[in-house]
Design brief:
2 domains; 8 helices; 21% helix; 397 residues; Rossmann fold; five-stranded mixed barrel; alpha+beta; OB fold (Dihydrolipoamide Acetyltransferase, E2P)
Length: 397
């Protein structure tokens, strides 16, 4: 059996065990040619193991792995049409920048003039002209990362594997390199397989994302699909922030079409101390079933007066955090719930009410903006949450 047309990498029922530990469990995944594909999940989810299997640094315990339609089981890493960029860059400290970039071509016995021309072209592509004679120790973190990229790309691999290559950079430089990596990938047209635990990074850079947990695939989709139409509660809580209300299904209503997702049913969930909240249930839970309703903070409006909406609840504004173009509002409900709402500012700096801490406020959102899952669904992938990211699960009723 051959790989589907346009497949750069295909994993078919791939498993990997380290003794009694299951690192990957029956992973089936297709990565298309020319796409920027991210493997996303918390530490220990299996994403780096998947990368190592593709690169030939590990051998699968079961299943089949194909690169460009060719089975690669037993094929040594150096003979595969892939290159890897590691988090520590692995540059040779005794070689200058040009020699580092040329190294792979020199190992392939490419003539000196030809490999120098190719290395210089690649240094120009990563905006490092004039740095040829410098040693790695004379470069900044971002410059060393660019050298590592140039060294990997100069071999023109079919697939470039990137194992958290921005993890050692500070926030500002990491943002700059995200844009640079995306530009490079579009320009060279090579398939990038990118490992990260940073949700924002994956959303910003990827054509498609595979969300993983405990060695299993949770969902594959575009950034918009993963964020707006999560396949389960764990994915929704891991990707961005979400407010969680737990209770029981009080009643079910009409069918609702959710763009790009399975049809759902509008349901009312009875939340202790809060009342009935309406949302969309794609699992079609029966009345009386335990359920969890999740709502994105940016979908919630904060107003001084109750306004017409599917869900309206009163509370007290406990904390206001101004973060440039967005304000985080933490609202305490009488039930004890702490609800997070994001208030975006328009380019004129207006368009939203101003509230002070301690003010009574109302929260409102549409039923179509709330997702309802079984309360006993898989636990959230919280071990991968970004440091300092707000948690809206302080208290659940």
């Amino acid at each position: 059996m051959t790989a589907p047309p346009g497949a750069a990498v295909e994993l078919r029922g791939v498993g990997k065990r380290f003794g009694a530990t299951v690192a990957l469990d029956d992973l089936t995944l297709t990565i298309r040619k020319g796409e920027f594909f991210s493997l996303l999940g918390p530490s220990g989810c299996g994403k780096t193991t998947t990368l190592n299997l593709i690169g030939g640094f590990e051998t699968a315990s079961s299943g089949e792995l194909l690169i460009e339609g060719r089975p690669v089981h037993g094929m040594p890493a150096h003979t595969r049409p892939v290159n890897t960029v590691f988090q520590n860059y692995a540059l040779f400290p005794h070689l200058n920048v040009l020699q580092n970039v040329e190294f792979g071509l020199r190992m392939k016995k490419v003539p000196q003039q030809e490999r120098r021309r190719a290395a210089l072209e690649m240094l120009e592509l990563v905006s490092l002209e004039g740095y040829e004679a410098r040693r790695p120790a004379q470069l900044s973190g971002g410059q060393r990362q660019r050298v590592a990229l140039a060294r990997a790309l100069v071999n023109r691999p079919s697939v470039l594997l990137l194992d958290e290559p921005l993890g050692a950079l500070d926030l500002k430089l990491r943002k700059q390199m995200q844009a640079e990596l995306t530009r490079l990938q579009r320009q060279v047209g090579i398939t990038f397989v990118y490992v990260t635990h940073d949700q924002e990074e994956a959303l910003a850079m990827s054509d498609r994302i595979a969300v993983m947990d405990r060695g299993r695939l949770q969902q594959v989709g575009t950034p918009a699909e993963i964020y707006d139409r999560p396949a389960g509660r764990g994915v929704m809580e891991f990707i961005g922030s979400a407010n969680v209300f737990e209770g029981r299904i009080a009643s079910t209503g009409s069918h609702v079409d959710v763009a790009g997702a399975a049809p759902g049913v509008e349901v009312a969930v009875e939340i202790d101390g809060v009342g009935h909240l309406r949302g969309v249930d794609q699992a079609k839970l029966p009345a009386g079933a335990r359920a969890a309703m999740l709502v994105r903070p940016e979908r919630i409006r904060v107003t001084s007066n109750a306004i017409g909406a599917d869900n309206v609840i009163a509370g007290t504004l406990e904390k206001v955090a101004h973060l440039g173009f967005v304000t985080h509002c933490s609202v305490r409900l009488p039930s004890g719930h702490l609800v997070l709402a994001f208030r975006l500012h328009d380019v004129e700096g207006g368009g939203a009410e101003s509230h002070a801490e301690g003010d009574p406020v109302f929260l409102s959102w549409r039923a179509s903006d709330a997702r309802v899952f079984a309360a006993d669904a898989a636990e959230p992938l919280v071990s991968g949450r970004r440091a300092g990211a707000p948690s809206t699960r302080e208290r659940r009723t």
